[in-house]
């Protein structure tokens, strides 16, 4: 992903008859329009599935890395320290950032798919129903011309945290505490536990402060980015989807370029 655009961009306004193109000046028939929409839908579904699989990839990396780290950390009582669990926590945080970026692309494609399902295919199934479609073709055309993310990186981080990563961080926290308490031998007093927290020349209080700030940050992002009903976009209603397609005007303009 590159580039952000903060300059005002024109909205797509349709003043021509149905199916009229300003570029080709060719009037599409109903059959041609339906065929084009079906191919567009298939393409967007393919993109959404591709990025959905990429989400699974980073989650698998996080789970496998955590499992390997904990297995090695508890395999020996004297030769391994709790430092590797702390380092693994930072690595999982980086995986979370990568997955949040991928989620932003996935959300972009699935929004288009859901819009076409709600407006185009639903209209085909109920042709006699009189419903104000609110110019959904203009919304979709504007989205194709000016692709932009519908959520910020912070909201993407929050969503992936609530879905998967909060449990991985919880396992790492519990494992770190257990490692401190029982290795190399079970601690007898709180003073023993406190002394084991130190990491080389780094003082104990600094390690404790860093751990507290790290977990507060995770909890803060999880709670602060939560939106009621926002994470059910794959089954969202027509009204909610149209609101999402228009909300970018209030949040700012971001032009998206696909990444390889």
Q: How would you characterize the overall build of this protein?
A:
This protein starts with 29 loop residues before the first helix and ends in a 9-residue tail after the last helix. It is elongated. The protein has one domain (30-251). It contains 8 helices and no strands. It has helices at residues 30-73, 83-125, 136-145, 153-182, 190-196, 204-224, 238-246, 248-251. 65% of the residues lie in helices and 0% in strands. Residues 1-8, 14-24 and 248-260 have low confidence and may be disordered. With 260 residues, it is an all-alpha fold. Helix 2 (83-125) packs across helix 7.
Q: Mean of residue pLDDT?
A: 78
General shape = elongated
Number of helices: 8
Largest sheet: none
Q: How many structural domains in the coordinates?
A: 1
Percent helix among the residues?
55-70%
- Beta-strand portion reads under 5%
Rg result = 25 Å
Sequence stretches where pLDDT stays below 50 over 5 or more residues: 1-8, 14-24, 248-260
Number of strands: 0
Summarize the helix and strand pattern as letters.
HHHHHHHH
> Which structural class fits the helix and strand makeup?
mainly alpha
- Our measurement of the CA-to-CA distance between the termini, rounded to an integer number of angstroms, reads 9 Å
Write a short abstract of this structure.
The protein is mainly α and 260 residues long.
Question: What is the topological layout?
Answer:
Elements: H1 30-73, H2 83-125, H3 136-145, H4 153-182, H5 190-196, H6 204-224, H7 238-246, H8 248-251
């Amino acid at each position: 992903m590159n580039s952000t655009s903060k300059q005002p961009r024109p909205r797509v306004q349709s003043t021509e008859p149905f199916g009229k193109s300003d570029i080709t000046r060719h009037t599409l028939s109903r059959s041609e329009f339906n065929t084009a929409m079906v191919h567009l839908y298939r393409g967007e579904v393919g993109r959404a599935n591709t990025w959905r699989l990429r989400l699974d990839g980073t989650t698998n990396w996080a789970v496998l890395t955590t499992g390997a780290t904990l297995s090695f950390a508890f395999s020996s009582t004297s030769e391994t320290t709790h430092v590797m669990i702390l380092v693994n926590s930072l690595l999982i945080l980086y995986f979370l950032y990568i997955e949040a970026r991928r989620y932003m692309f996935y959300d972009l494609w699935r929004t288009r798919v859901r819009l076409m399902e709600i407006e185009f295919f639903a209209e085909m199934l109920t042709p006699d129903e009189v419903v104000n479609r609110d110019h959904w073709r203009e919304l979709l055309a504007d989205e194709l011309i000016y692709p932009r993310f519908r959520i910020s990186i912070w909201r993407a981080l929050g969503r992936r945290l609530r879905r998967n990563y909060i449990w991985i961080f919880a396992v790492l926290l519990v494992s770190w505490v257990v490692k401190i308490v029982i290795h190399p031998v079970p601690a007898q007093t709180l003073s023993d536990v406190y002394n084991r927290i130190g990491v080389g020349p780094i003082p104990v209080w600094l390690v404790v402060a860093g751990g507290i700030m790290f977990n507060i940050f995770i909890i803060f992002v999880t709670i602060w980015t939560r939106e009621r009903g926002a994470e059910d976009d794959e089954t969202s209603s027509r009204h909610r989807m149209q609101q999402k397609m228009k909300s970018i005007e209030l949040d700012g303009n971001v032009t998206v370029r696909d990444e390889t």
